[in-house]
Each structure stands twice: as structure tokens, then as C-alpha cells.
Amino acid sequence: MRLRGLSNRARPCPIESRQTPLLQPADMTSNLQLFERAQRVIPGGVNSPVRAFRAVGGTPRFIARAQGPYMWDAEGQRYIDYIGSWGPMILGHGHPAVLEAVQKAALDGFSFGAPTEREIELAEAIIAQVPSIEQVRLVSSGTEAGMSAIRLARGATGRSKIVKFEGCYHGHADALLVKAGSGLATFGYPTSAGVPAEVVQHTLVLEYNNLEQIEEVFASQGSEIACVMIEPIAGNMNFVRASVPFMTRIRELCTQYGALFVFDEVMTGFRVALGGAQSVYAGLIPGFKPDISVFGKVIGGGMPLAAFGASRDIMRLLAPLGPVYQAGTLSGNPVATACGLATLKEISKPGFYEALSAKTRSLVEGLSGVAREAGVPFVGDSEGGMFGFFFADSLPQNYGVVMATDQPRFNRFFHAMLERGVYLAPALYEAGFVSAAHQAEDIAATVDAARAAFKA
Ligand code: HOZ
Predict the structure, then answer these.
(1) DSSP state letters, 368-416
(2) What is the CATH number of the domain that holds 229?
(3) According to the model, what pLDDT value does residue 19 have?
(4) Whose CA is nearest to atom 7 of ligand 1?
């Protein structure tokens, strides 16, 4: 089945002419052939579990290239991309200014293992948009940033216990792999094998948006808690917002008991707003700010780059100034920082988030409208360029409720959309992402595809 009015094969886009020609049928290897070959040498055929399509079934699409809001698979099939590499591609694929910055940086050298001016520029650019942080340390992945933030919080407080919430995913560091969202939720693992009980004995897992539980845990163990870590808008159990009373109370309790509040903004940072989710909550809770923030995805523009930051007082505890050790050969990589800087420059332009938010809202409203026409229970939500939807009557407030939404229907919808050239995340537990490259016609084509999918 094809998108109405659009060929699923290549359609010219603004800088199409700069690209290599599309593969011709004779050159093509099928997705299935590639998947079979991949499974012989890579566990499950993928380098990150959710990509394997196991939750939704079928053959993963092996992506050959991408441009703007589109990706083409190994068979030459075109998709409107709502994953955007799971968040980083906020400008769409192959943005000319970003490409140019990366090409220039690559010519100067891939990696030095020594400091560069560009690292300072990127740190300055991040700090300029996030008033809660005075210093950042650049690393290579969200997992590394989250893990280091926890170590820093423990080092700063001299305490061991950490609080996290069910359905939040903070990367795959051992202590955080408990009742996590994303792939663990997708595959139904409460935690990962290979993580000794002793390693997670200090991880307290509470229900998201449950005020009573957070009150109780602080009342009984508050003086032992190093930090509370949260995805402020959870994107690893689809899309679930922390309520304002919940967020307000966590902030108060952390301050009262001397625990640090860690905001995992790997997904939401520079994605839901230029100042991240913390700027959204600061608009709702006067004076609100977290103590430590974790970033990834957008700040690297699609390159392996992440960061964690806090006040100067907290950050000076890190080596080489302080006793909390953290290091990395590729940290602050010159090509990745060039990519991140060029991306931040584009997204800082006036009106960027207004346009992105309006587009994302129109997608969610469009999908909700055609679901309503079809009599399908459907709810959606979005903030900036991040969105989620559920086959349910109301928006879930926690992981348990997300799990109770209609998974088989999600899986059928996923495949019906894929067949129509729309690439959504291949699991119910993942948020979706819209980029600045998506145009009104892409949103309209997506809504048309959904209408046809609901009919089918
Ligand atoms: N952990 C990511 C989803 N929340 C998946 C990353 C990937 O497969 O690239």
C-alpha cells in the first residue's frame, strides 16, 4: 500500500541533488536478507534491542540513507521518519549547515585526546540556555552521562541510595536498570540479568506521579538518599508527563533532606524547548530548577555526544579538581562537538520551537481526529518536538497504566503505518519525534495514512 498522492520512492527534497543517486533495483539487498546476515554476526541482528522489531514483529528496515524528514531502506522504500534517531535529528537529516560543520571538522582531525576550543564553545552554548547549570562535562552517550551524574550525586552527598521511577530509562548502567522503560519494558524484563542484587540494593524504585510513595520514602530514608533521578517528561514509557504537584513535591523533599534532584533530559533537553523540560516546569513552578541535569541526543545533532552539568559547587567535585572520577577517550570529540554546535546554532534561531511545537501538535491532533472518525479509542500529547499516543481513553500517568493500554492494536497500527510509508517507533514504550524538516504536507500524508490504517 502506498501513501495517497505520494510515491514511496524518492521524492526530490531541497538538497536532493547533493546526494548520491538512489539505489537501482539490481543493486538492492532486501531487508530480510540483511536481517538474516546481521543475525549471524550481531546478537539479534541489531546493536540496540528495540531496533529488532521484536515487540511489533516483522523484519526491521535496514536504512540506506536519510534526507530531511525521510529515510530510505535497503529496498529503496521511503518513510516519513518519526524516530529521528530516537531524538537527535531535530533539524531533520542532512541539514546543510550541520553537514558543512561536520565535513570541515573531519578535515581537521577525528580525535585528539586533548582539549579543543570547540568543547568550550559547546559547553558555553549549553550553559547559555540552561540557567540551572554553570558547568558541564561532555561525554559520549546518555548512558555515560546518567551513570556519571549518579556517581557525582553520591560523591557530593556521601550517600548511597538513589530513587528512580518505574518506566523511566536512564541508560543501561547497572544501578539504573531496574524496572526501566524502553527496551526493558518492550521485552518485559523487570531488570537485566547480569546485574547483581548487591549492585541495585541502593536503588529505590517508585511509581511515577505517586505523591504518597515519594513522601513515604523520604520520611523513612530521606537522610540516606543521594538523589532522585527522573525523566521529567518520560519518553521511555511512550510519553508521560510528571504532574506539577509531583514535581513540586520532589523538589521540596530533595531540598529539605539534602538530596540532589537529577533531571534526565537526554530526550527532552533542547527537544521540548530550548531550555529543556526544566524550562517548561520553571514556567509552571516559580523558581523551579533541578540540581544536576543530564543531556544527550539533540546536543550531539546525531553524533555520539552527551553531557551532565550542575552548579560550579557540585561540578568542582569531579576529577581533576575533586575526588569523583570520570573520564573518556572520545569525550568532547571534535567532530561530534562541531555537529552539536551547528545544531544548537540552528535551533536557537527565533521562532524555531514555536514552529516545531505547532507542527507536532498538528500531527497529534490530526491522528486523534482520524481515530475519532474511526471510533478508535486514542489519546495523544506533545511538547515541543516530542510526542506520544496511546490506544486508550485517557493519558496514562504511570508505567502500570501504560502497560495496560492496547498493545496488539498498537502493533497493528505500527505495521499499517509502516506499509504506508510512515516510520514510527517499533514499540509502544517509545516517544516519537518531529523535526524542523517535516513539512505540512508530510504531516497531512501521515494523517491520511492513519485514516487508511484505521479503516483497514
Ligand atoms: N534506548 C533507545 C530507545 N529509548 C533506543 C536507542 C536505539 O536503538 O538507537
Answers:
(1) HHHHHHTT---EEEEETTEEEEESSSS---SHHHHHTS-HHHHHHHHHH
(2) 3.40.640.10
(3) 43
(4) 48
pLDDT tens, residue by residue, 254-295: 999 999 999 999 999 999 999 999 999 999 999 999 999 999
Q: Is residue 241 part of a domain?
A: yes
User: Does 242 reside within a domain?
Assistant: yes
What is the domain range of residue 279?
96-347
In eight-state DSSP terms, residue 338 is H
Residue 28's pLDDT band (boundaries 50, 70, 90)? confident
- pLDDT per position as a tens digit, 137-159: 999 999 999 999 999 999 999 99
Q: Ligand 1 centre from 320 Cα, in Å?
A: 32
Q: Which of 382, 391, 379 is nearest to 360 (CA)?
A: 382
Asked if residue 413 has its Cβ within 6 Å of ligand 1, the reply is no
The response to whether residue 264 sits with its C-beta less than 6 Å from ligand 1 reads no
Supply the pTM of this predicted model. 0.93
Torsion of the alpha carbons at 9, 15, 18 and 20, rounded to the nearest 10: -20
Question: Is 297 one of the catalytic residues?
Answer: yes
The answer to whether residue 164 is catalytic is no
Q: Answer whether residue 142 is part of any domain.
A: yes
Q: Give the count of domains, the chain.
A: 1
Distance from Cα 211 to the centre of ligand 1, integer Å: 29
Residue 85 Cα to ligand 1 middle (Å): 8
